[in-house]
Amino acid sequence: MWPTLSDGETVQFEKINPNNLVVGQIVLTTHPLKSKIMIIKRIKSLNEETVFLIGDNPDPNASEDSHNFGPVKQSEILATLAE
């Protein structure tokens, strides 16, 4: 999530009802292809049942997001970045 979040930075998340997600929110979820890895991404778009997640890094090859693994279910979003 660089440049928004720096490597090693500590952030706090809060649980949220997956039905209350908003485009632009930074969220925490489990990587869809690597179940032991948690990822932080930004919501780019919401459809009825899925969320398209992107990283903030301007280099599209710098991280994995929905461009690589596809959209995730809203129910798989664990928390949002606390403000």
Q: Helix share of residues? A: under 10%
Identify the overall geometry.
globular
Q: What string, H for helix and E for strand, traces the elements in order? A: EEEEHEE
Tell me the strand percentage band: 25-35%
| Low-pLDDT segments, ≥5 res | none
CATH superfamily: Umud Fragment, subunit A
CATH structural class = Mainly Beta
Q: How would you portray this structure in words?
A:
Helices cover 5% and strands 35% of the residues. It has 83 residues and is mainly beta. The chain has one domain (13-81): Umud Fragment, subunit A, CATH 2.10.109.10. It is globular.
Explain briefly what this protein structure is.
This protein is mainly beta and 83 residues long. Helices cover 5% and strands 35% of the residues.
Key terms:
83 residues, mainly beta, Umud Fragment, subunit A, six-stranded antiparallel sheet, 1 helix, 6 strands, 5% helix, 35% strand, globular
Reconstruct the topology from this structure.
Layout: E1 13-15, E2 26-30, E3 38-46, E4 50-54, H1 66-69, E5 72-73, E6 77-81
Antiparallel strand pairs: 1-6, 2-3, 2-6, 3-4, 4-5
